[in-house]
Amino acid sequence: MNTYRVGPQTQHLDHRAMTLDDAQAFFALNSNPQVMRHTGEPMLQSISKAREALENYPDFDTIGYGRWGSYLKTTNTLVGFCGLKYLSDLDCVDVGFRFLPEYWGRGFATQACKASIDFGFDTIGLQRIIALVLPDNPASARVLEKCGMKNTGIIEYDEYSPYLYEVTREDRGGSFTH
After folding, report:
1. pLDDT, tens only, 127-137
2. pTM of the prediction?
3. Could you give the C-alpha distances from 13 to 103, 117, 142, 163, in angstroms and in order?
4. At a CB cut-off of 8 Å and minimum separation 6, what does 21 contact?
């Protein structure tokens, strides 16, 4: 199994697996009410919980890829995350992203999401990628649409009713360039 701890680069972002050194920034992201209100997940309550989450993140070791930290190329600052996650209960791969509010509206989420989708198709060889978006999050829905994903309706998932977005290799003509 290939392990992709380093993800795709974009014009402004490097992507790589987060480490315990990122715990403070990861906590800032996942304890921010503006960020977390759109995720359906609880906010982190402490830096020690952030360290624990990073230390116990299994995806790179178990499936070979995961959510990469998104680091500004100019400063190496962790500003969010983006990447692919296998959802065993749906038996498919999800692209997800989360950025600090001060980096919203700069195109980073779109860059990161497009690069992650391309990586999924071109490097990993996936056939289909989905995304789940809560109905009260139109900004994320716009990002997914800019990345070529289509809204296929609402599904029931994990006690929520998100929109299901998807794109297939066939939709993209087998490959996609930035």
Report:
1. 999 999 999 99
2. 0.93
3. 12, 15, 20, 27
4. none
